Structure formats: structure tokens, C-alpha cells
Amino acid sequence: MMIEPRAGRPRASSRETLAEAACELFLENGYEATSIADITQRAGVSRSSFFNYFTSKSDVLWSGLDARIDDALDDLSALGTDAGGAEVRAVLENVLKDFAPDPLALALRNADAMGLEDELVRDTGLRHARLAAGVADVARRGGVGAITSDILGAAYAATLFSALRVWAERGAGSGTPTALFTDALARVHDLPWRI
Amino acid sequence: MMIEPRAGRPRASSRETLAEAACELFLENGYEATSIADITQRAGVSRSSFFNYFTSKSDVLWSGLDARIDDALDDLSALGTDAGGAEVRAVLENVLKDFAPDPLALALRNADAMGLEDELVRDTGLRHARLAAGVADVARRGGVGAITSDILGAAYAATLFSALRVWAERGAGSGTPTALFTDALARVHDLPWRI
DNA sequence: GCGATTCTTGGATCGAGTCTAACAACACTT
DNA sequence: AAGTGTTGTTAGACTCGATCCAAGAATCGC
User: Fold this and answer.
1) Do B151 and A150 count as a contact with CB atoms less than 8 A apart?
2) Which residues of B touch A154 (CB under 8 A)?
3) Are residues A191 and B189 in contact, defined by beta-carbon separation less than 8 angstroms?
4) Whole-prediction pTM value?
5) Angle at B27 (CA atoms; ends B24, B32), nearest 5 degrees
6) By 3-state DSSP, what share of chain B in percent is helix, strand and coil, each rounded to 5?
7) Which nucleotides of D are covered by protein (CB under 7 A)?
8) Strands, DSSP E only, in B33-190?
9) Other CB atoms within 10 Å distance of the CB of residue B143
10) Tens of pLDDT along A56-82?
11) In whole angstroms, what is the distance from residue A184 CA to residue B192 CA?
């Protein structure tokens, strides 16, 4: 986390500048109606530059959570064959830990104003699938059957995203997503982790 | 299911013709590398006509299952507030009942040859989310908490798609997806449907 | 033949996303 | 201060999925 004085031309913009411009426009005109050209125009950079900071339009919303999910997938794949629900829970709690309000939280809370219903279903589904696959893989490596592993993975992933959504809808003031997640997770533990 | 002799210009192509051309090309060159123009060219129709039969390229693979999912969502939303796991299971079994090998089954079995890994994750996630939301809604209407309902929905949806995937990978010869689904569903019933 | 209906088609248009070559701004070296 | 390497910006061309529309073609009943 050091500030390294790097060589080369300094950045004319930043992820934050672009994300702010994007979120403003999403709220004003909706997600679909906002083109990448609109975003870069408001941010005062060229359209080309957008892809120096984000891989896609939806990446503005999801990059924060995606980084955490990537970390979690690494952690999950590093778990041994004796890992169970407790280890998985610990990894997943980290995904939501200290999750600050970001473009995604804003989008979840203002999904209607942004006209994001469909987009959120699509994009959430993708992250859900990735996370579920990671958890299912841990179960499978631990000897759980293929389909049961998938069920477990989907249940854990759904718990995480449901907690995140509830937290975002309530507003950031009321508790942490981690607390919601931990509370809800008790329900999943009734599933048979072994056998 | 009557053959009505309708007025107007007869169709020059058909869903089946286009789907066959598409699947051939997907297998030969991969899904990504196959453009809609390629498909219509092989089918002998214009590019514009493609969208008279399918709403998108992925619709070639998913329209069959999507129709069944739409029916299931209708059935789920028609369930009363006293509906439980048994009613939901009955509805979901219908989704896979008599599911004949179709473009989706072909894609699931030849995902590697088609280079479909990413595409399937994305598209399956979307269907999973829709189905999970439908099931969760039944639970929620029955008084189950929000997050627990989401967990249940995700578990049921994951069971269905896991069964479908296992069935497709094994090849259509070995049993029905419904049987796989029914067998696996016992695991989900350990989740508390009430309270 | 005539209209009504249904479908096909080409072409225009849009936006996401990729790619590249030219150029601009910095740090560091000498 | 001039050169060099590095990093970032930018315009522009390009591909492709998807939407839209107007013109035309093929069938029906009359």
C-alpha cells in the first residue's frame, strides 16, 4: 500500500472519477440508457480510456465485489480435503467483511431508479455461479456427491448474496452484511455436509 | 397442436433448420467464433430472419428449457400460501419431465468442444436465478424469512440444474433427468421449509 | 384479378467491446 | 538540458450482437 512514484505519464483520470460519473448517470437516466461514451464524456476523458480502468460497463458496479470473490475462490481452492462448513463459512465471511458502500451497494439499493432489475439478476447469477462452484468443489473434494455438493454450493452462495441484498436495501446504517450472513448461515448447516 | 393452414407467405425456414445449422457450426468452430451471419448463411436465409425465430444467439440453446421454466414460474406463482416442498417439487419435476435431447443438452455434453464454459456459466446462472426467485417467492409467501427463502430457492434450483448437467454429461441413454432430480431432492428436504 | 395477411429481406442504426498506432507526459540518466 | 524508457491517453477503425423499418414477395379467401 505504498505510494510508489512511478515513471511515465500520470493518470488523467481514476477509477473513482469514472465510477462516480457512471453512478450519477445511472441514477439520472438508468443503466441501459447510459452509454460508455456518456460516462467518459462526463468524466472528461475519451471513450478509449474507459477500458483502461474497467473491463466492461457492468464492471463499474461489480469490480469491488469481484475482487473479493476472486480472493475467496483462491482461499477455497486452498482448503484441504478435510475442510467442512466451518472453514467455508470463514472464507465467505471475508467476502462481506468491511464491505463499504460502493457502486454495487448503490445499485442494489436503487435498482428500480436505475432500471437494473434484469441486469442485476443476470450479473448476480454469474457471481453466484462462480462462488457456488467454488464451494461445491470443496465439498466434492471432501467426498460429498456431485449433486449434493452443488446444492451446498448454491445454498452458501445464495446466503451470501441474500445477506448482501438485504443489507443494501436496508441502507448501510443498519448493521453489517457479515452479521446478516452469519445469522442466516445457521440455516444452511442443517444440510448434511458429510455423507 | 393443430396444423392450421394460415394465410400469408409461408415460412422459408424453421426453428429446427436454424438450430441445426447453429449447432453444427458451434461444434465445428465453437460458439464464440460462430456469428449469427454464419448461422443464417448455412441455413440459407438472411441474417434478419434469424430474429424471427430466436431472440438471441444463446436463445438457440436455451429456448427449449426457457419455455419450461416459464411454465414452472407460472405454476409456482399460482401456488397458495400453504404450499410446501412437495408442491414445489411437483412443479420442478415437470421442468425436466420428458426433456428430450435438444441444443442445450448437446451444448452441455460438448461444452469443451464448443468453448462454452464461460457462456454456460453465465446463462445457467441467469436461469438458476429466475427459478430460485420463483421458489423463494413461494416460501416467502408461506411465511419463511427472506434469506431462508432465498437459500431454499437456490437449493432447489441448483438441484434441478445439477441433475440436468449430470444427465447431459452422462449421455441421454442413462436414465432420465427427472429421476436424477427426484433422487437428489431428498437432500434438500433437510432444510426447514417452515420456520 | 384484389386485398389482407404473413413472412423475408436489405439496410440503417446503435452500443459494447477489441485493437492499434500515434502521441503526450512523466522520471531518470548522462 | 537533452535523450531515453515507461506509462497513459486518444482517435479511429473494426467486429459483432441486437433493434428497427420499409419494401417486397408469397400465400390465403373472395
Assistant:
1) no
2) 128, 132, 154-155, 157-158
3) no
4) 0.91
5) 105
6) 70, 0, 30
7) 5-12, 15-21, 24-29
8) none
9) 11
10) 999 999 999 999 999 999 999 999 998
11) 13
